[in-house]
Amino acid sequence: MSTTPTPAIQLVGLHKAFGSGEHEVVAVESVDLSIEAGEFFSLLGPSGSGKTTVLRMIAGFETPTSGAVLLAGRDVTHSAPYDRDVNTVFQDYALFPHMTVLQNVEYGLKVKRVSKAQRRQRAIEALENVRLAEYGRRKPSQLSGGQRQRVALARALVNRPKVLLLDEPLGALDLKLREEMQVELKAIQRDVGITFVFVTHDQGEALSMSNRVAVFNHGRIEQVGTPREIYDHPTTGFVAGFVGTSNVLSAELSAELLGAAKAHSLRPERIRIVDKPATGEISVAGIVSDVQYLGADSRVRVDLADGSHLLANVPSDGLVGVAIGGSVRLAWSRAAASTVAESEPDSEDPNQIGGNQ
Amino acid sequence: MGERLDRSAGIAEPGTTQISATGGRASGPSHPVRAINRVFHGRRRLGAGSLLGAPLGWMMFVYVGSLLLLVVSALYRLDPKTQKPTHDLTTDNLVAAFKFWDPDVWPAVWVFFRTAAVAMLVTAICFVIALPVAFFVAKVAPRWIRRGLIVAMLMPLWAGYLVKGYAWRAMVSPAGGRFAAAGQGEGGFLESVFGWSPGFGRTAIVVALVYLWLPFMVLPIYAGLDRLPPSLLDAASDLGAKPFRTFRSVILPMLLPSVAAGSIFTFSLTLGDYIVPQIVNNGQERFMFGTIINATLGAPNQPLAAAYTLWPLVIIILYLVAMKRAGAFDNL
Predict the structure, then answer these.
(1) Most buried one in A57, A232, A248, B210, CB count within 10 A?
(2) Among candidates A314, A310, A300, which has minimal Cα distance to A337?
(3) Which CATH class is domain B97-325?
(4) Is residue A243 part of a domain?
(5) Cβ–Cβ of B231/A107 closer than 8 Å?
(6) ipTM of the complex, rounded to two decimals
(7) Domain-wise residue ranges, chain B
C-alpha cells in the first residue's frame, strides 16, 4: 500500500480533547489512518466513539488538539473549512431554510464566483442526478426527509470536491428509504469516483457499502479492514460484538475447548447442533435456555457448564428435538473461531441476544 | 357563548350517562376530581374556554378596552365654559387633529416627524449595538460565561424607568449644572470624569433612549441566534463562504424576523416616550410628540389630546403590519 499514489486523506496521531482540567473529555485518541483516493471508506462505531469528531476534523470544523490532517498530501490541520477541497453532507442536512432548493445547490458555486449561467446549469444537473429536477423552486421545508437528504447530497457534489464527507446522512430516514439511499449513494460514488468518508453507527450499512471500514470505540480505532476482514477476522472482542453478532469465548473457555489460552470470537452461524461431532471439529454440550425464531434461521442460546453461554444460528427446520431445558451438543470447525484481543466493553453492550443484526 | 355550551353539553349527554353508569358505581361520587374531569371530557370548547376565558377577558378589557375608550373620548365635545368633556359626540376634535393643511397644526406635524425620526434612529443604533453583543453571547462566549452575560443584559430592566432617566441626567449634566457631583468639579459624571459631556439636549435624548430600550433589541436577536442551528454556519463555511459571506447570506436573512421583533419594541417605545427625553433635555423643548399630547391634555383639552394619540397609533399599526410581512411574528 505504501507504493500507491498519495492518499486522499491522511490522519497522523490525531488527538482531540474538549474542555480542560477536570472537565476534559477526550473524544479522539491517537488516530492514524490513510484513506486512498476513490475509496468508499466508513467510520463505524457506537455514539460517542469519536467517529463524528474525526470527520469534523477532516472537514475543518474542529481543530485537533494534536496531530495532523493531510488532504492529498497537503497539511490542512489549521486551515479553515472554506480553504479545504472537501464538502460535507450533514446529519441534519443543514439546508438553508430561507433559500430555495436551487439556491441551496448553487450556493457553493456562487461563493466561488462561477458565472450565473454555468452555475445554474450545474445546479440543475446536480438536482437531476438526485432525481429532484422539478423541485428547484421549493423551499427545503416543503420537502420530505429523503428529498432533503438528496438536496444536501446535490449541494455538496455540485462543487466536485475531491472528498465527500457524510455524517450519518441516512440516520433520520425510515428503513425502506434508507436501503434505497444506500444503493443510490453507492451508485453515485461509483459514477463520480470521488472519495467518500461515511460516518455511521449501523454496521450493516458500513459492511454493505464500503471498500474499507474503520471501527471506532472510545475515541480509538479498534480495527481497519475490508468488510470481509472485519466480519470474518475481528481482531478485538469489541469489533466481534459490534459488527454482527458474535460469541466471545473467554481465555479460560478457549483453553479448555480450543487448547489456546486466548479469547476467541465465534460467529453464531458457524455453530451447528449435532448428534456427534465430525472428526476434527470442536464440540461442547449444554442446556438450551432460549430459542428465537428469525424466519429461515432460529437463534438458539445454549448455557454451558462454566456459566457462560453460546448463541448458535441454525436452520429453523433443523430444530426438531431442540427444546428449552433440553441438552444439545454444539460443534464447529477449528477454523471458525479466531483470536481476539480483549477490549473495553462498550456501555451499549452490543453482544446481546438479538442485539446487532 | 351560553348557547354553544348548551349544545355541546347536549351532544355529550349519552357518553356522560354511560360513564356514570359503569365507572360511577366503582369510584364516582367519592372522587370530586373525577367528577370535574367527567364534565370536561370530550368538550374541547368548554375546556379551552375555562382555561383562556379569564386572561382573554382581561386582555380585552384592559388593552382593547382602553384603546377603544381613547377613540371614543376623542369624539367627546369640550364644554367651552367649564373646559370639561361632555358626552355629546362630535368629529370636531378629529378634524382639528388631522387638519394637516392648517398652519396651526404644522408645528405638531413637525414634532411628530422628528419623533418618528428619533424612533428610527434609536432603532438603528440599538440594532448596530445589539447584533455583535447578541452574537457574542449566543455563539462565541463559553457556556459558563453565557448565563452571566444574559443576566447582565437583563439587569437594567430591574431598575425603575425614572431612576434610569435621572441617572442619565446626572451623567450628561453640563458644567455648572444642578446635578454637579459634590467635590468633583462643576459638571455631571461625564463632565467631571472625561472632561466632556453632550450636555442636555438632543444627543442626550438619543443616548438615553438607546440605553433604555437596548435590551428589547438584544433579547430577540439573542433568541434568534440561539435558535440558529450551528450546522448551518458549518455548512456555509464548508461550501466556501468566508465569515463575512456567511454572516451576510445566512445569518442576517435568518435573523430578519428577530430584528423585526426587536425593532417593534424599540420603535414603538421610543415613539411613545416623552418623559425621559424631557428629563435629559432639562425640560427645555417640546422635543417628543408625547409632550404635545401631554400639554393638550393639561390645556385642558382631553378630547383633542385623545385625537392626537391616534397619530402614533396609526403609525404603529402600519409598522406592525409591515413587520408582520417581514415575518416578525412567525416564530414568537
Answers:
(1) A57
(2) A310
(3) mainly alpha
(4) no
(5) no
(6) 0.83
(7) 2-73, 97-325
